[in-house]
Amino acid sequence: MTTAYLKLAGGYVYDPINGVDGQVQDIWIQDGKIVDPPGPGVRAGRVIDLAGYVVMPGGVDMHCHIAGPKVNMARKMRPEEKRRDEVIERTQKTHSGTMGSVPSTFATGYKYIGLGYTTAFDAAVPPMSARHAHEEFEDTPCIDKGFYVLTGNNHFVMKSIADNEPAKLKGFVAWLLGAAKGYAPKLVNPGGVEVWKHHPRGNVDTVDQMVDHYNVTPRQIISELTRTANEIGLPHPVHIHCNNLGMPGNYSTTLNTMDALNGHNGHITHIQFHSYGGGEGEEETFCSRVPELVEYVNSHENVTVDVGQVMFGETTSMTGDGPLGYYLHNVYGTKWFSADTELESGCGIAPIKYRNKSLVHALQWAIGLEWYLLVDDPWRVVMSTDHPNGGSFLAYPQIIRLLMDSTYRKEVLKTVHPEVMNRCILADLKREYTLNEICIITRSGPAKILGLKNKGHLGAGADADITVYLPHENKETMFELPKYVIKSGIVVVEDGEIREPLLGKTLHVDPDYDKEIEGDISNWFEEYYSIRFRNYPVQDGYLHDAEVVECDPDAS
Amino acid sequence: MTLELTYQGNTTIPLEIEGINPDTVEQLTIAEIEKLPIFHGKDKCVLADYFKVSGDAADQHINLSGQLAGVHWIGTKMERGTITIEGDCGRHLGSEMRGGTITVQGNASDWIGAEMRGGHIRVHGNAGHQVGAAYRGSERGMNRGTIIIDGNAGNEIGLTMRRGLIVIGGNAGDLVGFRMLAGTILLCGESGIRHGAGMRRGSIIFMGDQHPQLLPSFRHAVNYQPEFMKVLLRKLRHSGFEVPDDLLDASYDLFHGDMIEGGRGEILLRR
Q: What is the pLDDT of residue A556?
């Protein structure tokens, strides 16, 4: 049975995928989807007059940390934040929750939807802990969500590459994503985490350094996983956290990583943290190398990036990059958590406070902004703070203001460490984003990069995930409190209040693979894993409301 | 005039009266004070549900009376004025307080003066665990101010404290000055084990006749008569804390530690 139409009437519509740039249009919704106007004489069950309002697709956060074991550990590590920060009071329709840099599950859902974001992807879940992530997703309401599966240090992956068995690698990656009900393979410091787990202070310094025991290099891992993921036809082939995150001089590693994609589609994440010049451990020479990296991105269409913007304030760093967590703990002397997920991945968590008077932190902030302002094509760069690593997703409105208002940007630049001016070119950049470009980097672009054909646009057939803003001269004010947020065709938020807390869907892939591979994987599990093969895959019962996003092997 | 809060409840469920301080109520009428929110377990209610409110708050003095052992968070975040408690009180007394004076005639429970930033707390009876401590997860505990307990106290006294003075007139439990960053703890009675574990700086002074066994990561430096002890003890005596004359000229064995954390802290054992 179809439901009555909902009509959003007369708003300024921004829908870059369909070439709509602020024209006044009506949007018709039925059964959770956007539909073509039904024709004259048909009346909508409800009409919302949006004359004077800005209408955009719901926001899509393609890289954040909101569920799974490391997120939950970070919550437990930061009780001091929970005591200090805002409390989410229970209402008749919503659960209570806590904030801090790592909000509780329900609070995460409420805050995302309150900001106009309707989809979010957790960026790093060990497949062995996939159940945990799915269970937390069930408690993260209002938004659609999915997660990337850590594969860059997986022993089976490295062995298949070292043994030159591409068919086995392809079968395993496809099986693993389906078993975890994940969305894309995630590479975190490929090979480096495994070295860290085997050697005191161990890591890899370059993409061509051998990962001992497995006799593969990070470059091989990147190249082979990227090729395989594209062959499988994954909607979002690979999501790469490069080696040497945060290290001075790491831009060359980032360039080599992009080069290792060998022309296949790949996404480099939180690239701000990978864009540094300077000598090893030398604050004196630490500087931005964004222009060189942007030049590569501008000239290679197979590469997309999200920024990982640093915002000043206190937050919690959490990563599958075990050696990075240890490094931060040593630099800042804060508490630290490290984990080893047997044959799959590592983890490091440490509190961090970004200070505007710190040269390093201020330069990180500036380097992030350089990325937004230097990349020619906004479809290739995505807004992210790597929540909560660079800052909270709640800082997105402030970032939008920094991008749309060069005067404000200059004012903030004056308040940071003065040496920043000499270490990057941010002060010379005059570009100001338009609303259309903001729409691209916050929803249409990430939806396209994720291969989500029903999100990020307002054409017929799209999910009716829509955000309505009241225009304001101060763009931070405009974007921090949407007038309406519509999720799956239902008005979930109105004037900042949650009216109808939907649960939201889990988005995952279920790629085909050669079933013969299961024998090898089963033997591998029986020999090395602490869990049996038949108990490993996440059963359908763990997914409350799932949508399988199709793979397209012919697209590779 | 004093604001009189007389507990009239009869409940075993914790009652939390955070935020009812001399500085927050001084401008309020009795009727307004009666309506201030408090928590009975998880349920929000008003002060008048459990307390008889009388007197006047204008002089920034509150007097609490009745069976207050189940009443918690008294004087939390207090900035000025005085609170007097006739009898016992519950946990988190003077938590995060920044100024003013709290006096307890009876015993107090755990977390007295946790993360306090200033002010003065005096307990004439015994105290519980974690006096002047950091709450779980926090980087720093007490960071200025004075806490004087006439009786005994429990474990983890001065946990991660950064500044300030804690004086325990009686005995204490284990881990006095655990992970202490700086500040001073003076203990007059006997105590348990593992004191000063992980301390970076600061002073822990054991005045009792029975010396605790120190961790092997503390190294003996010297036996001496530190001048600051005379100043400290005279100041305590001046505040009404009983200090026998012979202690003023006592000598002490000085130990440096915790060597695992650089060895810049000190433990003094009175000879």
A: 64
Q: How far does B235 lie from chain A, in Å, by closest CA?
A: 34
Residue-level pLDDT at A281: 63
Contact criterion met (CB below 8 Å) for A272 and A354: no
What is the mean pLDDT of the segment spanning B25-34?
96
Q: What is the pLDDT of residue A282?
A: 67
Q: How many CB atoms lie within 10 A of CB A435?
A: 19
Specify if A32 maps to a domain. no
Contact list in A for residue B136 (CB cut-off 8 A) is 79-80
**How many CB atoms sit inside 10 A of residue A89's CB?**
9
Question: What is the pLDDT, as a whole number, of residue A515?
Answer: 95
Regions of chain A with pLDDT less than 70: 1, 280-282, 556
Chain A residues touching chain B at CB-CB below 8 Å: 77-81, 83, 334-335
* pLDDT above 90 for B93: yes
Whether A460 and A469 have beta carbons less than 8 Å apart is answered as no
Strand locations in B28-160, DSSP E? 37-40, 43-46, 51-55, 61-65, 71-72, 82-86, 101-104, 120-123, 143-149
For the full predicted model, state whether its pTM sits above 0.95: no
Q: Give the nearest chain B residue to A84 (CA atoms).
A: B138
Contact A77 B136 (CB under 8 A): no
ipTM of the complex: 0.80
Q: CB distance A79–B139 less than 8 Å?
A: no
Task: Name the domain count of chain A.
Answer: 1
Residue A39 belongs to some domain of the structure:
no
Please report, for the domain that includes residue A285, its CATH number: 3.20.20.140
Residue at A44 is within a domain: no
Say whether pLDDT at B109 is over 90: yes
Chain A's closest residue to B135, CA to CA, is: A80
pLDDT in tens, B171-210: 999 999 999 999 999 999 999 999 999 999 999 999 999 9
Q: Go through B163-199 and write b for each residue having 16 or more CB atoms within 10 A of its CB, e for each that does not.
A: bbbbbbbbbbbbbbbbbbbbbbbbbbbebeebbbbbb
Structure tokens at A79: 């009780």
Q: Which of B108, B193, B204, B184 is nearest to B142 (CA)?
A: B184
Contact, A277 vs A414, CB < 8 A? no
H or E element at residue A118? strand A117-125
Question: In chain B, where are the structural domains located?
Answer: 110-270
Please report whether residue A101 resides in a domain: yes
Helix (H) or strand (E) segment spanning residue A60:
strand A59-64
For an interface test with A, give the residue of B136, B143, B179, B181 to mutate (most A CBs within 10 A). Answer: B136
Contact A78 B135 (CB under 8 A): no
A300-343 pLDDT, tens per residue? 999 999 999 999 999 999 999 999 999 999 999 899 999 999 99
> In chain A, which residue's Cα lies nearest the Cα of B141?
A80
Residues of B whose CB is below 8 A from A96: none
> What distance lies between CA A103 and its chain's CA centroid?
16
Contact B139 A83 (CB under 8 A): no
- DSSP assignment, residue A45? S
Nearest chain B residue to A79 by CA distance is B137
Q: Mind giving me the DSSP string for B9-54?
A: ---SS-EE-TT--HHHHTT--HHHHHT-EEEETTEEEEGGGTEEEE
CB–CB contacts below 8 A, A to B: 15
